[in-house]
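Today's session is about reading a structure prediction critically. Students often jump straight to the picture, but the first step is always the sequence itself: look for stretches that repeat, for charged clusters, for runs of hydrophobic residues. Only then move on to the predicted structure, which in these notes is written as discrete structure tokens rather than atom positions. Here is the chain we will use throughout the hour.
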Amino acid sequence: MHGLTQQDLANRVSVTRQTILFMEKGKYNPSLRLAWKISKVFNTPLEEVFSFEDEEQIKDEEASA
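Below is the predicted structure for this chain, in token form.
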């Protein structure tokens, strides 16, 4: 969408390309600071770039269904 490679984004937010890869795969949750930096690179509100799912709440909802 923005024409950035994983390496480009990693360079702009001072992390490794592997960190970006793991975030994309859902295997790494970024710190709030890193999430904020990424949202600034994309000039997009943080909540549009990332979402947070409360695992405890999901388990409770699944159990009650």
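Discussion point for the tutorial: Residues 32-41 form the longest helix (10 residues).
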